């Protein structure tokens, strides 16, 4: 299912910029607010919290920019999907927090599941070249 011409290609480019760009921004936020995010990760029982925050930030930057640029699309969309699969239940465990925190954690959990769905769409579409992309891949 190639998206290679007309408004569909432009719409797909806009989707890539919005999705990937915001993921990369979130990754940058991991580095800019590493201390605060590390404390939160530690409170959730994440081992090596600071290293995990920095690693996940790197995954988000790599994945987001890869989606925007169309560079290694299967790997970058896959990295985003893995990030979301691992971190969502660990960081947004709405079922295990006090009642006053459940709504916020559930909202973040649902948001991440929605993002996972989008990452999986990009992963499925990575088998075809993307219009307005660098289209660098490993032929996977």
From TrEMBL:
Instruction: Tell me where it resides.
Output: Membrane
Q: List GO terms (cellular component aspect).
A: membrane
The transmembrane residues are 7-28, 60-86, 115-134
Keyword list (alphabetical) reads: Membrane, Transmembrane, Transmembrane helix
Predominant place of localization: membrane
Q: Output this protein's name.
A: DoxX protein
What topology does it adopt in the membrane? Multi-pass membrane protein
Naturally occurring in which organism (per UniProt)? Haladaptatus pallidirubidus
């Amino acid at each position: 299912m190639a998206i290679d011409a007309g408004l569909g290609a432009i719409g797909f480019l806009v989707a890539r910029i919005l999705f990937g760009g915001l993921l990369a921004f979130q990754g940058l936020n991991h580095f800019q607010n590493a201390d605060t995010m590390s404390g939160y990760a530690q409170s959730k029982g994440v081992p090596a919290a600071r290293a995990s925050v920095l690693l996940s930030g790197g995954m988000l930057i790599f994945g987001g920019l890869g989606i925007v640029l169309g560079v290694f699309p299967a790997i970058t969309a896959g990295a985003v999907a893995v990030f979301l699969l691992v971190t969502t239940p660990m960081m947004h465990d709405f079922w295990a927090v006090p009642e006053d925190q459940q709504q916020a954690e559930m909202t973040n959990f649902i948001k991440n599941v929605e993002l996972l769905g989008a990452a999986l769409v990009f992963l499925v579409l990575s088998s075809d070249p993307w219009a307005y992309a660098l289209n660098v891949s490993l032929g996977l």
